[in-house]
């Protein structure tokens, strides 16, 4: 069979638009039912037919997803002009072009792709793949030839690398080493997928019945909400009135409020130091933070303990909210373990005059206490607030996801250092969840004769 005899289903307007782009990095999707997998299969096949000898790679999270969504459909679609090698997981076209198939859900999975070269890389459902893996695929897009070089991501809001893709393709918030012209995004909704609407006319209705947060993400493609958030109850919207929000403008804490310091150690990963004020009613306020993060999310500054506590001690000597205050510290119990120097991280802190008590490391009860603090009472007020300039807390807390194997815990692969430091303080000051009293509905007693007539009508029906 030649390329001329292959009959391709006509793409919709959004699919056609994205296949015409020439940017090195292209994202497509943003909602469920946008025709993402069809795009991957069709675009990769078209390029292989058009450019003899071109090499393409299709990645999905798991092998079962890969086989169902790409290997089987593509084998059927290219029958007669491409041959599949199951051992190599490669589809070879009669003109020498190839599509290789792979899966990736962890850094260990990445080992099989290191050193590989592909002209085209398609990463389907890319937001479910860890950010570190997504970045490691970038150097694989190469080759000493004149073939076009593209990496195409199909995705929905949510997943492990949600905030990486949101930053690049939605917010377009680029780092100094990123060229905005390299990145293009085509937002596709289920309403754009004419083929799906024809085959499954009730699919939109199914999406409309989802819980509000899922509906916003999967039906409308909104990137500010997504499923799987561990702290979806954290309202990250600054308001001065302190009602129905957790983020408020800074103010000078009254002198009689208690001050706490919380700490989570990190070197290769970020360290987190927070200062909290607690008022007479037990409400916690995150007033300051020192977050040791490098250029990339979840990358440490590589400060040793001496440098960290030297800076923490300086802040407490000089900051007007902390200077001269009695500060109670609580930290990860792991910092009391001895290091190769014979000193523990806690010993180094004490050397700088920074004292801690070991935090309670009960994760599940700790997270429950965090949720108790976030809960709003019947007046719309929570038991904790965050000053709006505490940007590390506000950035990282919404990114944390549930652990797939232990849903009552969060996924520790996330950037959880601010959350851990916060958890130690919540366990030090435990509270019960606020009770929101519902209005009692008073049903007036029914007249006996009316009750009798009502019962007779029901029995007749």
Notes on the protein architecture:
An eight-stranded mixed beta sheet has the order 3-4-5-2-6-7-1-8, with helices on both faces. It has helices at 13-19, 36-50, 63-77, 107-110, 131-137, 162-170, 194-199, 203-208, 212-218, 305-318, 345-351, 363-374, 391-396, 417-428, 448-460; strands at 25-29, 55-60, 82-85, 90-93, 98-103, 120-123, 150-155, 183-187, 247-248, 258-264, 272-278, 284-291, 327-331, 357-358, 384-387. With 461 residues, it is an alpha/beta fold. Helix 2 packs across helix 3 and helix 12 crosses helix 14.
List the helices and strands and how they pair.
Layout: H1 13-19, E1 25-29, H2 36-50, E2 55-60, H3 63-77, E3 82-85, E4 90-93, E5 98-103, H4 107-110, E6 120-123, H5 131-137, E7 150-155, H6 162-170, E8 183-187, H7 194-199, H8 203-208, H9 212-218, E9 247-248, E10 258-264, E11 272-278, E12 284-291, H10 305-318, E13 327-331, H11 345-351, E14 357-358, H12 363-374, E15 384-387, H13 391-396, H14 417-428, H15 448-460
Parallel strand pairs: 1-7, 1-8, 2-5, 2-6, 6-7, 9-15, 10-13, 12-15, 13-14
Antiparallel strand pairs: 3-4, 4-5, 10-11, 11-12
Helix pairs in contact: 2-3, 12-14
């Amino acid at each position: 069979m030649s390329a001329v005899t292959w009959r391709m289903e006509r793409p919709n307007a959004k699919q056609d638009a994205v296949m015409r782009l020439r940017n090195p990095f292209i994202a497509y999707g943003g909602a469920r039912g946008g025709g993402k997998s069809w795009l991957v299969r069709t675009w990769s096949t078209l390029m292989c037919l058009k450019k003899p000898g071109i090499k393409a790679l299709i990645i999905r999270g798991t092998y079962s997803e890969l086989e169902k969504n790409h290997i089987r459909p593509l084998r059927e679609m290219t029958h007669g002009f491409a041959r599949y090698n199951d051992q190599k997981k490669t589809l070879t076209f009669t003109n020498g072009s190839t599509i290789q198939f792979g899966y990736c859900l962890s850094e260990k999975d990445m080992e099989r792709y290191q050193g590989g070269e592909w002209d085209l890389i398609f990463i389907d459902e890319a937001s479910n793949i860890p950010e570190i893996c997504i970045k490691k695929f970038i150097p694989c897009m190469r080759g000493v030839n004149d073939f076009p070089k593209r990496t195409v991501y199909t995705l929905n809001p949510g997943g492990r690398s949600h905030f990486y893709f949101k930053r690049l393709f939605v917010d377009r918030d680029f780092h100094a080493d990123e060229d905005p012209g390299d990145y293009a995004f085509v937002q596709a909704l289920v309403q754009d997928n004419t083929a799906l609407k024809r085959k499954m006319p009730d699919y939109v209705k199914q999406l409309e019945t989802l819980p509000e947060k899922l509906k916003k993400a999967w039906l409308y493609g909104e990137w500010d909400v997504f499923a799987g958030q561990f702290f979806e109850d954290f309202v990250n919207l600054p308001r001065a009135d302190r009602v129905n929000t957790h983020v408020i403008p800074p103010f000078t804490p009254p002198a009689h409020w208690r001050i706490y310091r919380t700490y989570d150690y990190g070197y290769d990963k970020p360290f987190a130091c927070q200062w909290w004020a607690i008022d007479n009613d037990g409400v916690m306020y995150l007033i300051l933070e020192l977050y040791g993060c490098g250029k990339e999310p979840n990358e440490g500054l590589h400060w040793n303990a001496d440098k960290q506590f030297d800076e923490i001690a300086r802040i407490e000597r000089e900051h007007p909210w902390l200077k001269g205050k009695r500060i109670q510290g609580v930290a990860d119990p792991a910092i009391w373990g001895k290091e190769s120097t014979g000193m523990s991280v806690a010993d180094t802190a004490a050397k700088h005059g920074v004292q801690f008590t070991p935090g309670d490391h009960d994760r599940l009860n700790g997270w429950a206490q965090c949720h108790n603090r976030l809960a709003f009472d019947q007046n719309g007020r929570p038991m904790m607030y965050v000053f709006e300039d505490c940007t590390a807390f506000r950035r990282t807390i919404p990114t944390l996801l549930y652990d797939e194997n232990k849903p009552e815990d969060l996924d520790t692969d996330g950037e959880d250092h601010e959350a851990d430091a916060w958890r130690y303080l919540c366990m030090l000051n435990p509270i019960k969840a606020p009770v929101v009293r519902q209005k009692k509905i008073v049903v007036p007693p029914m007249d006996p004769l009316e009750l009798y007539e009502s019962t007779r009508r029901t029995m007749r029906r």
